[in-house]
């Protein structure tokens, strides 16, 4: 099993920045993908960004340039730097880890709330 603990959410004014952190513990495979997804009220969960253990990143196209993901694989930690935040970025942000196995095994954190005020 893998446990994911997110931190860094909160209330910020539009135009501000936040940095989310997620630490993974437990049975983390050496080859894995970590990432962030978000779910706004009344909407489906959507991809924000992912990063593989090899450092390959993938972003939702609409967030490129404002959001940046990075990780420390030795510490099983991933961060999401969010800049120029907009009210529409308000959502619960979930950390995700996929252990690369057959089939891949998905884990989720409990989420951290980000609220952007106008």
- Total strand count, please? 11
Distance between the termini: 40 Å
* Uncertain residue ranges: none
- In helices, the fraction of residues equals under 10%
Please report which band the strand proportion falls in: under 5%, 5-15%, 15-25%, 25-35%, 35-45% or over 45%. Answer: over 45%
Which word captures the global form?
globular
Oligomer: single chain
Task: Give the rounded overall mean pLDDT.
Answer: 96
The radius of gyration over CA amounts to 14 Å
Kindly name the structural category: mainly beta
Structural topology:
Layout: E1 2-7, E2 10-13, E3 18-26, E4 32-39, E5 46-52, E6 57-59, E7 67-72, E8 77-82, E9 91-99, E10 105-108, E11 112-117
Parallel strand pairs: 2-11
Antiparallel strand pairs: 1-3, 3-8, 4-5, 4-9, 5-6, 7-8, 9-10, 9-11
